[in-house]
Automatic annotation (TrEMBL):
GO biological process, alphabetically ordered: calcium ion import across plasma membrane; chemical synaptic transmission
GO molecular function: high voltage-gated calcium channel activity
Keyword Signal set for record: no
Organism: Carlito syrichta (Philippine tarsier)
The protein's name in its UniProt record: Voltage-dependent N-type calcium channel subunit alpha-1B-like
InterPro entries: Ion_trans_dom, VDCC_alpha-1_subunit, Volt_channel_dom_sf
Pfam families reported for this sequence: Ion_trans
Primary location recorded for the protein, binned into one broad class: membrane
Topology term for the membrane: Multi-pass membrane protein
Annotated GO CC locations: neuronal cell body; synapse; voltage-gated calcium channel complex
Transmembrane segment boundaries: 28-48, 69-96, 152-170, 182-205
Keyword presence, Phosphoprotein: yes
Length: 316
């Protein structure tokens, strides 16, 4: 077909042409470059959309024509960067360690002796607060909060709280949303009680010396603030509904689980290496996901409340 070109002085009919995307699979080299781009995580949703919309040779795209291709991209994006890249990095590290062992083998000390010396040099004593008076209420509270059953119970509550956060869906019944709201209040109350018990057991200064305790306290305080702000928004009809504020720190349960795991046996090697290797960008990605999530929810809430100030006509 043809189309009319109005950019010039005279209107001309130009033939329509299908141009290639920046990343495609027309040959092996471009296919490898496309897969490498997908593995880096930059721009892969657009490549996924182009692949899903592809139809046949010499034909135009059709939205959602090959939805089954999305499974390939999801599996490739998860498996390749998470496992294969880290395995490649691990092989490089092992190679350097072997070269270092060859150099150190010329020394008079054996490998185990060198390991003992390195451990003695780098070891740091663990400090743990314990009340001196074993007959006091503080000592009994401390015994309770540091016990393994209490830690496992809190981990179970965090897992259940994570499941409740994932149970929300669009256009849910009022009774269902009310149930999730009540469960959120129950979990927030339990985590608040945990913070109170730990403050009583460790004392204010000793409690806030641990960065993980500070994180737990900020998360609980933010959850309480979220509940209060949501209730105020529901009572005030001039504000958007509670859907615009669905949860404060939604990524909180994962770091809280990791904070509990630090007290137990070390993480398996297959999980510890990726976590340490990607720790530099984890916070940035969580913040970016949180920003996008709140942006989508806010746009949906504005569509439901056209009379709100953000939608008022004539606003600058």
């Amino acid at each position: 077909g043809q189309y009319l070109d109005y950019e010039k002085e005279e209107v001309e009919a130009q033939p329509r042409q299908w141009k290639k995307y920046d990343f495609h699979y027309d040959n092996v080299l471009w296919a490898l470059l496309t897969l490498f781009t997908v593995s880096t995580g930059e721009g892969w949703p657009m490549v996924l959309k182009h692949s899903v919309d592809a139809t046949y040779e010499e034909q135009g795209p059709s939205p959602g024509y090959r939805m089954e291709l999305s499974i390939f991209y999801v599996v490739y994006f998860v498996v390749f960067p998470f496992f294969f890249v880290n395995i490649f990095v691990a092989l490089i590290i092992i190679t350097f360690q072997e070269q270092g062992d060859k150099v150190m083998s010329e020394c008079s000390l054996e490998k185990n002796e060198r390991a003992c010396i390195d451990f003695a040099i780098s070891a740091k004593p663990l400090t743990r607060y314990m009340p001196q008076n074993k007959q006091s209420f503080q000592y009994k509270t401390w015994t309770f909060v540091v016990s393994p059953p209490f830690e496992y119970f809190i981990m179970a509550m965090i897992a259940l709280n994570t499941a409740v956060l994932m149970m929300k869906f669009y256009d849910a019944p009022y009774e269902y949303e009310l149930m999730l709201k009540c469960l959120n209040i129950v979990f927030t109350s339990m985590f608040s009680m945990e913070c109170v018990l730990k403050i009583i057991a460790f004392g204010v200064l000793n409690y806030f010396r641990d960065a993980w305790n500070v994180f737990d306290f900020v998360t609980v305080l933010g959850s309480i603030t979220d509940i209060l702000v949501t209730e105020i928004a529901v009572s005030d009809m001039s504000c958007p509904p509670s859907g615009a504020r669905r949860g404060f720190l939604p990524e909180g349960p994962l770091p809280r689980c990791i904070s509990r795991l630090r007290l137990r046996s070390p993480l398996p090697g297959c999980m510890e290496a990726p976590l340490q290797g990607r720790s530099s960008g984890t916070g940035c990605r969580l913040g970016r996901c949180s920003f996008l999530r709140e942006r989508v929810v806010l746009r949906g809430s504005l569509g439901q409340w056209p009379e709100s100030r953000l939608e008022a006509p004539g606003d600058p």
